[in-house]
Specification:
The protein is mostly helical and 135 residues long. 53% of the residues lie in helices and 6% in strands. The protein has a two-stranded parallel sheet. Helix 4 crosses helix 6. The longest helix has 25 residues. The N and C termini lie far apart (40 Å).
C-alpha cells in the first residue's frame, strides 16, 4: 500500500495490514490519541477529532485501493469486510465513498461479514460439526 509506510508484522514495509488494521491505526496515533485502542480512535473520529479522522481515512483509502486492485485482478463481484475495523460504524460507507470517486469499474458491492465478529468461531464449529470431530 505504501512502500515508505510503517513496518508490518510480516517484516515488510507499508503493507495494508500495517496501515488499515486496528493495530495500524493505533500505531500511527500521536499526542492525545497515542495509546488508545482503535475502537476509541473511531469514537474520537465520530466526535470530530481531526487526527482520528485522518487515521480512519488513511485506513479506508488503503482498503479501497486494495479492493480496486482485487477487482481488477479477479473481476470479483462482491467484497465482504469483517474485523473490528471493517465492521466499525460508518467504515464500509467510507470505503464505498472512496471507490465511488474512481472509474465505474471499481464500484463493487461491499457487505459486512454476515456473522460479524463471530465468523471465525462459527466457521470452526461448522468445520467440527461437518467432520464429526470431538473436542
Amino acid at each position: 500500500a505504501d512502500p515508505q509506510g510503517p513496518q508490518c508484522g510480516c517484516g515488510r514495509k507499508g503493507c495494508v495490514e500495517a496501515i488499515a488494521s486496528g493495530r495500524g491505526i493505533t500505531s500511527a496515533a500521536r499526542y492525545e490519541l497515542e495509546g488508545l485502542t482503535a475502537k476509541a480512535i473511531f469514537a474520537h473520529a465520530s466526535a470530530g477529532n481531526a487526527q482520528a479522522r485522518v487515521l480512519i481515512q488513511r485506513s479506508a483509502n488503503a482498503i479501497a485501493a486494495l479492493i480496486a486492485d482485487v477487482k481488477m485482478i479477479t473481476d470479483c463481484q462482491k467484497i465482504v469486510l469483517g474485523g473490528s475495523v471493517g465492521l466499525a460504524p460508518g467504515y464500509i460507507d467510507l470505503v464505498r465513498d472512496i471507490l465511488k470517486k474512481q472509474p465505474e469499474i471499481y464500484n463493487i458491492s461491499i457487505s459486512p461479514a454476515r456473522y460479524n465478529h463471530n465468523a471465525g468461531i462459527i466457521g470452526a464449529a461448522l468445520f467440527l460439526h461437518q467432520h464429526n470431530a470431538v473436542i
